[in-house]
Inverse folding.
């Protein structure tokens, strides 16, 4: 950028003079020097006798380039040199122009392993000289180099001494003509061969070889009978006989007294025959084992049974005569859906293996469960010839599973269905009515009588409500937890359902419950919902909470209810967050942090946004972040933000800030994830973690440990929103902060509120003494920016420079 003409021009002139001393002007050479960007620096070019370029590139004060010759002549036209990027570094290259071969070599120049430029050397050879050399010697010349680095010309011709001397004269004349450069390697004729004499001798050899081959062929005809008949045909007939025996399941050994190739074939045949016998024996044993341990049948192409083993007959209760020739539907259980057998049939007809668990019916009407595999058997043409089915009896396993399933879906205290069973029931019918019944003041019962007494009370209440709905099959009672029951009704009229719940509440309230000789009066509060199955339980619980707040016995869920709106909003945003994560619509936006001295965008702060599914607009975290913290999605959002931000800044040069809370820092899983990404992307030296100022920090030592760990990766720490909260300067020092972000609420008033200005001045003064940099947030106009600069704040951030954007400028 600052071109010191005298210094740099002297260096170029010095280099050029060195090149001139090395290469004379008539050498047909060219030497060019380039910088690391491939731009020409200096050139010595004398490839022709009439024109030469010897000079270097210089610059005028206004930056204009010109060509300075070695004789101090300024030329505005710069010699044309082919772009260094279009050549191969450290390799030879050539081009043929106007009868000349131009050969060039480019070499990189390095200083401490850093490329600082290139040197290109070029020279030329006249193709006419090479052609004349080849013509006058009347043969192809081969140029080689010996151990003394001397070039030799090998000429394929042999002749008498006079001819040799004549050729030697013309040869020596050519050598002089070829010598285009100083100190050219000397050329010597090593030997010469006479092509005519060589051709005559070669024809004689060809004739002799043809005669010999004819004699060999005649001898071969005489010996062929013995070798073919005695040595080949007989052993092959023995092999054929052995193959016929194998087809009859007789595994014989062919006699062999030969050591030739056919003898080896016989040995291999005997080995195969022996292995085949062992394999057939193994397969027979395997078949016996399968018949004893499995239920095996075979079917024809129509699905009719053509084979059934004893296990099939024993478990099904049929005899062999009752099943052979019958379709497999003879054991089909009516509870199994037709779609299963349709899928089975389509699969095996497509020459694929089908596997599944099937319930079959016995002859006496009983059932048994099987784990079944059906395999189509193919012939050598790939055609299906039959179907083989192998089954294992798993009836005991299935029955045990059903028992476990019942235990899994049953409340052990009351014997009623639990939450899992309730969720399954809600999926069985599209329209349900649901009521959540909660015992009032049940905790007092447990505190006064003990938990054992409370359990008995809940059990009695379950029995009482079950008795009240005993005659109505549409009503089902569930016990979810503690003192909470749920009653659902399939396809119920809303008014009838509400009336039913009111009757149950009144009956329970006026009927004392007997528990261990104690008379207990119980009162229920209920929430009712008729919403869709996806939200019916949550909305009924909302109605229950409203009933408790308003001191009502029953409340029905309605959209207009304010608490309902709050809960519905939480449910809605929880769903939106989940979908945004799945659709990869959680993205980081970036707002620049500007250097107040240079006005450069040295840093960016990453801010989370969700792209709305409907209109594609970004959604502020104001609408979803607090809700996310109450769900399992918060940690996922944090991980997505960190990962995608690191991906974007992996190949950038600016710093990037990420917001983390104390809860994030104390989360061991999230800690490990952060360390893993810092190691993966290796950008810790450009990452700043912004910690939101907190009034108090529990487990302070763990927070300090996290900071020390990320600083080991080169990361920096910033304290966000400093100045409005606790503002504990001692706590700030212990966190080893690198930056203090002054809260925007004070920066916005810095020009109009003297108190805000005084607080900011105090923070800046403290930061400078602690050697911490300061960042002003909410810099929204030029007036605020000027005041921020006057106070000595190093960085600014706000809409005066740019709003947060998804795309970064290069």
């Amino acid at each position: 950028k600052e071109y010191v003409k005298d210094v740099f021009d002297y260096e170029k002139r010095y280099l050029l003079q060195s090149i001139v001393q090395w290469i004379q002007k008539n050498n047909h050479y060219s030497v060019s020097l380039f910088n690391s960007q491939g731009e020409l620096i200096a050139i010595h070019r004398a490839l022709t006798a009439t024109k030469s370029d010897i000079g270097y590139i210089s610059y005028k004060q206004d930056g204009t380039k010109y060509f300075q010759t070695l004789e101090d002549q300024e030329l505005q036209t710069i010699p044309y040199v082919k772009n260094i990027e279009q050549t191969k570094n450290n390799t030879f290259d050539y081009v043929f122009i106007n009868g000349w071969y131009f050969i060039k070599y480019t070499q990189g120049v390095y200083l401490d392993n850093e490329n600082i430029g290139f040197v290109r050397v070029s020279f030329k050879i006249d193709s006419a000289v090479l052609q004349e050399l080849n013509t006058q010697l009347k043969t192809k010349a081969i140029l080689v180099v010996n151990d003394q680095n001397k070039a030799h010309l090998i000429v394929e011709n042999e002749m008498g001494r006079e001819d040799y001397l004549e050729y030697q004269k013309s040869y020596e004349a050519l050598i002089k003509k070829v010598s285009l450069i100083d100190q050219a390697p000397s050329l010597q004729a090593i030997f010469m061969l006479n092509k005519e004499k060589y051709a005559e001798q070669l024809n004689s050899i060809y004739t002799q070889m043809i005669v010999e081959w004819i004699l060999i062929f005649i001898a071969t005809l005489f010996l062929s009978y013995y070798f073919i008949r005695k040595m080949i045909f007989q052993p092959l007939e023995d092999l054929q006989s052995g193959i016929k025996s194998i087809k009859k399941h007789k595994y014989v050994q062919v006699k062999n007294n030969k050591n030739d190739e056919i003898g080896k074939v016989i040995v291999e045949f005997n080995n195969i025959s022996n292995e085949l016998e062992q394999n057939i024996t193994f397969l027979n044993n395997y078949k016996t084992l399968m018949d004893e341990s499995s239920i095996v049948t075979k079917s024809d192409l129509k699905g009719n049974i053509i084979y059934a083993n004893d296990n099939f007959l024993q478990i099904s209760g049929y005899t062999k005569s009752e099943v052979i020739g019958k379709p497999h539907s003879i054991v089909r259980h009516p509870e199994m859906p037709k779609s299963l057998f349709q899928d089975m049939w389509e699969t095996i007809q497509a020459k694929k293996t089908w596997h599944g668990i099937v319930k079959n019916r016995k002859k006496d009407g009983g059932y048994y469960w099987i784990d079944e595999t059906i395999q189509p058997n193919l012939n050598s043409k790939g055609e299906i010839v039959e179907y083989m089915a192998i089954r294992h009896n798993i009836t005991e396993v299935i029955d045990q599973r059903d028992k476990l399933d019942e235990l899994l879906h049953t409340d052990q205290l009351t014997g009623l269905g639990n939450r899992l069973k309730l969720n399954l029931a809600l999926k069985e019918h599209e329209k349900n009515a649901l009521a959540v019944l909660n015992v009032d003041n049940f905790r007092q019962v447990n505190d006064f009588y003990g938990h054992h007494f409370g359990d008995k009370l809940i059990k009695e209440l379950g029995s009482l409500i079950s008795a009240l709905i005993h005659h109505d099959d549409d009503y089902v009672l569930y016990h979810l937890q503690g003192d909470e029951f749920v009653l659902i009704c399939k396809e119920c009229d809303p008014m009838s359902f509400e009336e039913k719940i009111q009757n149950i509440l009144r009956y329970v309230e006026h009927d004392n419950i007997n528990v261990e000789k104690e008379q207990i009066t119980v009162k229920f509060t209920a929430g009712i919902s008729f919403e869709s199955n996806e939200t019916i339980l949550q909305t009924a619980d909302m109605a229950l909470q409203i009933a408790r707040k308003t001191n009502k016995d029953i409340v029905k869920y309605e959209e207009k209810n304010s608490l309902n709106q709050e809960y519905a909003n939480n449910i809605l945003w929880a769903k939106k967050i989940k979908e945004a994560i799945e659709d990869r619509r959680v993205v980081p936006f970036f707002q620049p942090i500007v250097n107040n001295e240079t006005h450069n965008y040295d840093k960016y702060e990453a801010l989370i946004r969700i792209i709305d599914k409907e209109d594609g607009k970004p959604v502020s975290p104001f609408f979803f972040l607090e809700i996310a913290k109450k769900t399992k999605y918060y940690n996922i959002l944090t991980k997505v933000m960190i990962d995608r931000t690191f991906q974007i800044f992996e190949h950038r040069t600016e710093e990037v800030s990420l917001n983390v809370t104390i809860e994030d820092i104390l989360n061991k899983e999230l800690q490990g994830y952060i360390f893993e990404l810092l190691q993966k992307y290796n950008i810790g030296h450009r990452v700043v973690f912004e910690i939101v100022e907190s009034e108090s920090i529990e487990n302070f030592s763990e927070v300090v440990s996290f900071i020390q760990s990320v600083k080991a990766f080169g990361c920096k720490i910033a304290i966000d929103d400093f100045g409005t909260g606790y503002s504990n300067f001692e706590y700030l020092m212990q966190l080893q902060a690198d930056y203090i972000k002054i809260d925007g609420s004070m920066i916005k008033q810095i020009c109009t509120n003297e108190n805000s200005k005084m607080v900011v001045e105090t923070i800046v003064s403290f930061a400078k003494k602690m050697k911490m940099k300061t960042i002003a947030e909410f810099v929204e106009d030029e007036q605020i920016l000027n005041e921020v600069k006057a106070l000595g704040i190093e960085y600014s951030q706000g809409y005066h420079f740019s709003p947060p954007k998804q795309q970064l400028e290069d």
In short: The first helix runs from residue 5 to 22. The chain has a mean pLDDT of 79. The CA atoms of residues 543 and 549 lie 10 Å apart. The first strand starts at residue 29 and ends at 35.
